[in-house]
Write a structure and sequence with these properties.
The chain has 140 residues and is mainly alpha-helical. The chain is built from 5 helices and 2 strands, in the order ααααββα. The longest helix has 42 residues.
């Protein structure tokens, strides 16, 4: 059933889902791990391996499977959050123009600056129209 779900998900899910191939790979990986557990159980049941070896395989398999699964789930969550952040940035990218329009309507002067890693605001080398108006008001 899990392998069939992965095939259906691959066929039906939208192509823009974050980490789509990794989700499918995760399900297929779990099917593979469960298959290995089944083989391990059958080997122990038939006496091909000792019960100690069976439990050792289960323990190591659990550790490895949980580490890989956890890593893949972290990757999926990171991809989802990265896409959500991209959508938020895209949705709000036009707000700057709206705020500048509001400021200019109030006859405020806008001085664009670039903020460096230390938080220092650096004014542009070339004079902007608002900067020239402000300089003329301040008699500079």
């Amino acid at each position: 059933d899990m392998a069939m779900w992965a095939r259906r998900f691959n066929a039906e899910a939208p192509k823009d889902i974050p980490a789509r191939p990794q989700r499918i790979l995760l399900v297929q990986f779990l099917v593979f791990v469960f298959g290995l557990y089944g083989v391990n159980y059958l080997l122990a049941a038939t006496g091909a391996i000792s019960h100690h070896s069976e439990h050792l395989v289960y323990g190591m398999g659990d550790i490895i499977a949980k580490m890989i699964t956890g890593g893949m789930l972290c990757f999926v969550r990171t991809a989802e959050r990265r896409d959500a952040l991209g959508e938020i940035i895209l949705k709000h990218s036009s707000l700057n123009t709206a705020f500048v329009s509001l400021l200019r309507a109030g006859r405020d002067h806008i001085l664009p600056c670039t903020i460096d890693g230390n938080g220092t605001c650096w004014l542009p080398e070339k004079h902007t129209p608002d900067g020239q108006i402000l300089e003329s008001i301040l008699n500079r």
